[in-house]
Specification:
The chain is of the alpha/beta class. 43% of the residues lie in helices and 20% in strands.
Length: 344
Amino acid sequence: MIRPIHAGHQPLDALLAALEAAGEATRLRILALLSEAELTVTELMTILGQSQPRVSRHLKLLVEAGLIDRHREGAWAFFRLAERGVANVIREGVIAALDPADAGLAADRRRLEAVRVERKEQAAAYFARHAADWNRIRALHVPESAVEKAMVDALGEREYEAILDLGTGTGQMLKLFGPRASRAVGLDVSPAMLAVARANLDEAGLRHVQLRQGDLYALPADLARFDLVILHQVLHFMDDPARAVREAARVLKPGGRIVIVDFAPHHEESLRVEHAHRRLGFSAEEIGAFLAENGLNLQLSRDIRPEATGALTVSLWIAEDSAREGDFPLPGDPLSRSIITKVA
């Protein structure tokens, strides 16, 4: 369930500053682009056909006006349309009023799509190169056995009608939780990864598991009403992780759960350069915001810290659709003391 964003009343000076910042052709184009995707300066330069100093100047003015958010991860800076205050006024009253048939804006969207295609091709090429040893690469960080144990301990022994594993990779999550489900589906963009997953699931005898190629940003229309959706070590590959969480929430049945496993914030730039990671981990606050925006109650947040020096911490989050409260251990239970951190 996606909660609508409402602009509400805004102070006169803030609104005037926002309108002034938005009232320039290039800046309005930037706002329209950032309403659709999180972009870097380099990507905006490619789409707009403008120099780095000019694009950076426009971005600075938009940040100062409270219309866009900027966050830095290592050597990269990401920009996205803000979701508060005057930014919502511009989103609802200006960007929404733009004519989608406008030739200039349509050209921007085509170049944006080209950027997205390039991103997907880079990720797909990486997966194709490393499909056979993907599990070995993961093992360079916190041992998968420790992560899987934490997931099993947190979710308990519940049986499921339907499980969806987004970015299934080698199919390990389906091997782990598929036996509990009447129906299980694994989705991945890479045919090479799906080939590996299919072999692994055949070996495990999980005949009821379905594997499909698809886009995590636009899930197939027939995928719906899952009572468990898993995003295991996939969000750091996404250029718009909030959008992926939104899609995951959309296919949940009432009271369904989402499980997210990903790296805690880190500074290993080599993962971005050598392994196509778009994001260098996520904080609990950032994941919590993604979930809250979609009407999901964060019930568990836990860091799984490595014993090996230099290895990365992995975080586990579990949230539930707000239609029903979950049955996680209450504070004081042995499980809540030793396994999970409850989130108020």
